[in-house]
Design a protein that fits this description.
This protein is mainly beta. It has a single domain, classed as Immunoglobulin-like. The protein is 9% helix and 25% strand. It is built from one helix and eight strands. Strands 1, 2, 3, 5 and 7 form a five-stranded antiparallel beta sheet that branches. Strands 6-4-8 form a three-stranded antiparallel beta sheet, with no helix packed on it. It is globular, with a radius of gyration of 28 Å. The N and C termini lie far apart (65 Å). The N terminus is likely disordered.
Length: 180
């Protein structure tokens, strides 16, 4: 073997060795396209619909609003240090067959989803959703409902007021749907 072939062979070996390593890198960038279609709630993959006499969906956005009595209010407020379950529309009181549940969560997507709720607050007030057909009435935050395509769950609101000061509160519950 002459000297020139030997040096070329070393050069190839040296280059090949420089590609072997930990496989780590500090940064990378890749452009990908994403197509998103925003639609009204009646056509959305997950639909929220008020039950009872309200019976409306969130036409103008992803929010459905409910009003409950003021905590410790003069005549009609809910009390402090208590647990309340709201599972029927008050406007249906006295009717023979009131609608069970205040909100229906419907899966109109293309796959099964696990549905649960989260509540974050600056107060000691606790608000949670629960399946009104569940005899144990477990909170969706602890026991998510699995909805196949076309299925729904009717929920009520549970409000715990332990340690909550008298007053009016504006709380937000987030409803999350994700593939199981």
């Amino acid at each position: 073997m002459n000297r020139r072939e030997f040096i070329t062979g070393l050069g190839v070996t040296g280059v090949a060795g420089s590609f072997v390593g930990t496989g780590a890198f500090t940064a990378t960038t890749a452009d990908r396209e994403l197509s998103v279609e925003v639609t009204g709630d009646d056509s959305a993959s997950l639909t929220l619909r008020e039950l009872g006499n309200g019976g409306r969906s969130a036409e103008n956005g992803p929010e459905v609003e409910f009003n409950f009595p003021v905590i410790g209010g003069s005549d009609t407020g809910i009390g402090s240090n208590s647990v309340y379950e709201f599972d029927r529309d008050a406007s249906e009181a006295g009717q023979n067959n009131p609608t069970l549940g205040l909100l229906r969560i419907e899966n109109h997507g293309t796959q099964s989803v696990k549905v649960y709720s989260t509540h974050s607050t600056d107060s000691s007030l606790q608000v949670e959703l629960y399946d009104v057909t569940d005899p144990d009435r477990l909170a969706l935050s602890d026991d998510p409902a699995v909805l196949n395509v076309g299925e729904s769950v009717d929920v009520g609101f549970r409000i715990r007021t332990y340690g909550t000061a008298i007053g009016t509160y504006h709380e937000t519950i987030e409803i999350v749907a994700q593939a199981p």
